[in-house]
Design a protein that fits this description.
Number of helices: 9
Number of strands: 5
Largest sheet: 5 strands, parallel
Distance between the termini: 30 Å
Radius of gyration: 17 Å
Strand content: 5-15%
CATH class of the largest domain: Alpha Beta
Shape: globular
CATH topology of the largest domain: Rossmann fold
CATH architecture of the largest domain: 3-Layer(aba) Sandwich
Structural class: alpha/beta
Oligomer: single chain
CATH superfamily of the largest domain: Cobalamin-binding domain
Bound molecules: cobalamin
Amino acid sequence: MQVLEGLKQSIIEGDESKAAQFADRAVVEGIDAKTVLDEALIAGMNVVGERFRSHDIFLPEVLLAAKAMYAALAKIRPLFVKGEMPLLGRVVIGSVQGDLHDIGKNLVGIMLEGAGFEVIDIGTDVAPERFVDEAVAHGAGVIGMSALLTTTMPGMGRVITILKERGLIGKIKVIIGGAPVNEEFCREIGADAYCFDAANSVATVKKLLQIAH
Ligand code: B12
């Protein structure tokens, strides 16, 4: 599909205005929001990630790509969050302490919102205590944590320790995600679930909260 390819390319090139224009076209053409997300936005950021890893591009280019991605995301967001839906539950989501990466976390938030959850996004560089405090304050059933750096991953374990200390383990479920995180790490720290991607997180949260699909 031409629009999707154009959108993907404009993200790779870090062209904010072109990305917004293509996203507008995708909306007008009625392309399914999940398809736009998977085949243009995430696909584009994956290419950017690979090029960054192989030193073909550097941080400034990555930042431009992220800005283009957000411009597009702003346009397709209404497709995810439309109309009145019964509230399925509340999820507090954030990037762990020391971690400023938020693209993946934001995508997960949007997907969950689109599926009918209230998402309380507490941003990036979130201290472990704050995850728990915010979940309690909002009556959230799930805490979602994102880490993109191997150095920030241990922060996830600290949140679980605090939940245990406060007698909240099992009552508030914990899902984790981000490129360096995996099933094994999830088991190691005692989180309830690891999610490979944003789409997978919706099914996982539903399962944890025992909501029928
Ligand atoms: C974009 C990016 C940046 C941007 C971030 C912009 C932003 N607003 O987020 C900027 C330029 C700021 C940046 C900075 C840095 N970055 Co950087 N960055 C990336 C890059 C290229 C892409 C990440 C991304 O957005 N991917 C796209 C999204 C959609 O994918 P995702 O995050 O994985 O999310 C999906 C899943 O993981 C999952 N998921 C994610 N979170 C969650 C949470 C929950 C609850 C669930 C259920 C699921 C889930 O669902 C998402 C959607 O499907 C990666 C490379 C890579 N391959 O990951 C490096 C990378 C993560 N960065 C890296 C590094 C080293 C840095 C810096 C230290 C660089 C520096 N020298 O300053 C700083 C650190 C800043 C900080 N303190 O956090 C390294 C990390 C190495 C490591 N193993 O620790 C990577 C892997 C690049 C590399 N190969 O070297 N970075």
